[in-house]
Amino acid sequence: MQAFESPDPSATSPPLSLGWREWLSLPALGIPSIKAKLDTGARSSALHVEALHTFRRDGVLLVRFDVRPRRRGKRLFSCEAAVVDRRTVTDSGGHRAERWFIQTEVELAGTRFVTEINLTDRRAMLFPLLLGRSALCGRFGVDAALSYSCPRPSRIGRIPT
């Protein structure tokens, strides 16, 4: 079992500042790199998914979905994760919708941590992933003057979930 870094509330040094958009990876989903908008105004994180289906295995509710890490890319990743919750989310336009939430690993700026992400249709958005303040809080600051301030993650293999 791998240890994950979590924010240390007693730490006195300021969190690492990242740009408003960054490359990151979702290792447990097998996604080696994906563009993300870092948004301190959004509470939760949201991932664009296609062909979402829920099912049960051994009494556990799971969700299967496809992720296209590039907006117009051809590469499609088939993913599966346990459902954490289904909650109502209000988007930036004030529209409310029920969304499935999963918990997964994120690797960003050399740090690997687990966070909740809701699954939704973001095809009209520029970034397939929005990383909200609950994932950023205590780990990273966001400097709107910066963009792609850390290197793009290297290719990774699929990590069993």
TrEMBL record:
tRNA processing in keyword set: no
Gene Ontology MF terms: peptidase activity
Pfam families named among the record's database cross-references: Zn_protease (PF05618)
Ranges for domain Retropepsin-like aspartic endopeptidase: 18-152
BP terms from Gene Ontology: proteolysis
Alphabetically ordered keywords of this record: Hydrolase, Protease
Domain of life: Bacteria
Keyword check for Transmembrane: no
PANTHER family: ATP-DEPENDENT ZINC PROTEASE DOMAIN-CONTAINING PROTEIN-RELATED (PTHR38037:SF1), ZN_PROTEASE DOMAIN-CONTAINING PROTEIN (PTHR38037)
Protein name: ATP-dependent zinc protease
Organism: Dokdonella ginsengisoli
